[in-house]
């Protein structure tokens, strides 16, 4: 066990691990080995001597009062204060007395056990570090190479040290991938499964993918001068994204669209030519809803009982609804409210959006409350 620090540094460098974490793992493995060799009933400790760079193992014994009932059964994890003072005159009740255990006499069985413990705990440490890395990347765009496509058309993508999965449901309609293709996607979730180990799920249909692509394409968003307040998508067809400028000299929509639409077109191309509406956010809900219904021109917006009642000229109604209802659906998703369209001059009208699920009346308040 000489020069254990050199071995630890070598492992840490090879595996890309933190030296402190590897030290803790080595001492844990030694304690586990001692329990298997000497007995589970005893308490052990291990430490690395910085002077000699060697690993030391010791048994821990708690100092207790003479009448302590834990001494009656002859439990070797406890020692009476009188006996302890013979070893260390300054020791007190509640302190721990330690006895060094030689490592040179452990034998081949112990060495093999220690090796297995080290391999196991180093592997767990690697897995935890990889898991934390990808958990911190949830919502971020990653690149990877397609390595497998199963019978259910789930796509397996190799990203650095892991193989992530892009389920068929998270793929834009009409997309086809082949082995060897480089695919861009967003990490939807990362978890550790007992059977599968680290599980990383990717998505190309999530609104977060659109937001992440815009962050990569628009420097003002990446630098925090433009904030993405919210987004809604019908993947591969159309999307709406609300933008807020945090700098007085920056036009949020203009900067995101780019000169002659170059920035927004690059994002649209990645999303199979998905049409993307950029909307300037307003903390006045009525104004924001009117903007979100673009290209329709709205006369009035009134919010009541968790619903937005929108008055507009009859010739604007079809624009507000959009092809197959896509425009009003996206606006409803973006604003978090059901939307009822009323033609100008009509006192009452049936909602043209009855098929939308009821939403929380406080949704709009929550959306705008933080700004």
Number of helices: 12
CATH topology of the largest domain, by name, is N Utilization Substance Protein A, Chain:P, domain 4
What's the architecture of the largest domain, going by CATH?
2-Layer Sandwich
Q: Using only CA atoms, what is the Rg?
A: 32 Å
**CATH class identity of the largest domain:** Alpha Beta
- Spatial ordering of strands, largest sheet: 7-6-5-8-9
Q: Which strand-content bin applies to the residues?
A: 25-35%
DSSP, total strands: 15
**Elements, N to C (H/E):** HHEEEHEHEEEEEHHEEHHEHEEHHEH
Please, what is the CATH homologous superfamily of the largest domain? Answer: NusA, N-terminal domain
Q: Low-confidence stretches at least 5 residues in length (pLDDT < 50)? A: 347-361, 363-371
**What integer is the average pLDDT?**
85
Q: Give a quick account of the main beta sheet: strands, pairing sense, barrel closure.
A: 5 strands, antiparallel
Shape: elongated
Q: Measure the end-to-end span.
A: 60 Å
Backbone structural class: alpha+beta
Number of domains: 4
Percent range of helical residues: 25-40%
Write structural notes for this entry.
- Helices cover 35% and strands 28% of the residues.
- With 371 residues, it is of the alpha+beta class.
- The protein folds into 4 domains: 4-125, N Utilization Substance Protein A, Chain:P, domain 4 (2-Layer Sandwich), CATH 3.30.1480.10; 137-203, OB fold (Dihydrolipoamide Acetyltransferase, E2P), CATH 2.40.50.140; 206-281, 2-Layer Sandwich (GMP Synthetase, Chain A, domain 3); 284-371, K homology (KH) domain (GMP Synthetase, Chain A, domain 3).
- The strands form 4 sheets. A 5-stranded antiparallel beta sheet has the order 7-6-5-8-9. Strands 1, 2, 3 and 4 form a 4-stranded mixed beta sheet that branches. A 3-stranded mixed beta sheet has the order 10-11-12, with helices on both faces.
- Helix 1 crosses helix 2, helix 2 packs antiparallel against helix 4 and helix 5 crosses helix 8 (262-270).
- The chain is elongated and about 100 Å long.
- The two termini are 60 Å apart.
- 27% of the residues are buried.
């Amino acid at each position: 066990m000489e020069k254990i620090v050199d071995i630890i540094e070598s492992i840490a460098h090879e595996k890309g691990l933190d030296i402190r974490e590897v030290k803790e793992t080595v001492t844990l493995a030694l304690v586990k080995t001692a329990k298997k060799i000497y007995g589970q009933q005893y308490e052990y400790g291990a430490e690395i001597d910085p002077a000699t760079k060697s690993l030391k193992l010791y048994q821990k014994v708690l100092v207790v009062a003479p009448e302590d009932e834990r001494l009656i059964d002859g439990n070797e994890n406890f020692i009476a204060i009188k006996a302890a003072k013979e070893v260390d005159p300054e020791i007190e009740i509640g302190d721990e007395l330690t006895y060094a255990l030689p490592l040179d006499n452990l034998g081949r069985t112990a060495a093999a056990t220690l090796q297995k413990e080290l391999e196991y705990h180093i592997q767990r440490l690697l897995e935890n570090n990889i898991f934390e890395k990808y958990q911190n990347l949830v919502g971020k765009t990653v690149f990877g190479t397609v390595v497998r496509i199963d019978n259910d058309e789930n796509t397996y993508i190799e990203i650095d040290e892991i193989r992530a999965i892009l389920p068929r449901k998270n793929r834009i309609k009409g997309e086809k991938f082949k082995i060897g293709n480089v695919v861009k996607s967003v990490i939807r979730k990362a978890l550790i499964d007992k059977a599968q180990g680290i599980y990383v799920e990717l998505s190309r249909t999530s609104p977060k993918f659109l937001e992440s692509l815009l962050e990569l394409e628009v420097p003002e968003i990446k630098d925090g001068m433009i904030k993405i307040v919210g987004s809604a998508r019908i993947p591969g067809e159309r999307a709406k994204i609300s933008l807020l400028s945090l700098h007085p000299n920056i036009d949020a929509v203009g900067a995101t669209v780019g000169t002659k639409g170059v920035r927004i077109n690059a994002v649209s191309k990645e999303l199979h030519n998905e049409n993307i509406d950029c909307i300037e956010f307003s903390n006045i809900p009525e104004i924001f809803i009117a903007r979100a219904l673009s290209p329709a021109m709205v006369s009035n917006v009134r919010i009541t009982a968790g619903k937005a009642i929108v008055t507009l000229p009859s010739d604007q109604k079809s624009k507000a609804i959009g092809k197959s209802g896509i425009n009003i659906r996206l606006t409803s998703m973006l604003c978090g409210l059901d939307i009822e369209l009323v033609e100008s001059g009509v006192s009452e009208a049936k909602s043209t959006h009855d098929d939308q699920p009821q939403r929380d009346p406080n949704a709009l308040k929550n959306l705008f409350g933080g700004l």
